[in-house]
Design brief:
mainly beta, two-stranded antiparallel sheet
């Protein structure tokens, strides 16, 4: 089981399917500029179309949004590479802690405690544990979100609907992961993200009903290693 699949935190695939958008393999629409980058056009060339100053402004707005809250709860819909859709609730407590609770019949639960990420099978009572630092989740759960200083950023794009950041990271002996995070272009509220694994398979999560006013119980994020 890939521990990064639920990385798509919470989302309803209520992502606007406008005809002007290209379609990703799992049916999620991409802004044309982002699709160009995904198709292999260098990110720098794509970003240049809207100008470096505009990209810097978008980065600053995203940084300000992400650093404005320490906790978040909401609902999510996850679309797996085979098109399967699962949904549930999620809880974030920065730095490094998150819980994804999947609705039945799914028996999976994902939790990060600040150091590790555990994917649990609640029926079999088993779990796979991975260092948080080895997963794209750490970008979302960082205490200080600063895209301007993040060497993994390969593109920043904005159109009338979404502001989008693309990050890539090469893991030794595994390959390159791509994380694409999309925000509402007007409010900069988190909307969805897509993780592309080294084999090219996409897992997308869309989030809704976001609440940053309440602090989740820290006990939600405990990983039992016994």
């Amino acid at each position: 089981m890939r521990p990064i699949l639920p990385v798509s935190l919470c989302v309803a695939l209520a992502v606007l399917a406008a005809p002007a958008f290209a379609q990703q393999s799992n049916g999620v629409p991409l802004p044309p500029s982002v699709q160009a980058a995904v198709d292999g056009q260098p990110a720098v060339q794509v970003a240049a179309a809207s100008g470096q100053k505009a990209a810097q402004q978008t980065i600053q707005r995203i940084n300000t949004y992400f650093n404005s809250f320490k906790s978040m709860t909401g609902n999510f819909v996850q679309v797996d590479p085979d098109g399967t859709r699962r949904q549930g609730q999620f809880y974030i407590l920065k730095p490094g802690r998150v819980l994804f609770e999947y609705d039945p019949p799914s028996r999976v639960e994902l939790v990060a405690d600040g150091r590790s990420v555990a994917v649990r099978d609640k029926k079999l009572k088993t779990q796979d544990i991975t260092p948080l630092s080895a997963t794209p989740l750490r970008f979302i759960l960082a205490e200080n979100f600063d895209l301007a200083r993040n060497a993994n950023v390969t593109g920043v794009y904005q159109d009338d609907v979404f502001a989008t950041v693309v990050l890539e990271e090469k893991q030794p002996m595994i390959g390159t992961y791509r994380l694409m995070i999309m925000f509402d272009a007007k409010t900069m509220q988190l909307k969805q993200w897509t993780v592309t694994d080294p084999q090219g398979f996409d897992t997308t999560v869309a989030v809704s009903n976001l609440d940053t006013s309440e602090r989740p119980d820290p006990m939600l994020f405990v990983i039992n290693r016994n």
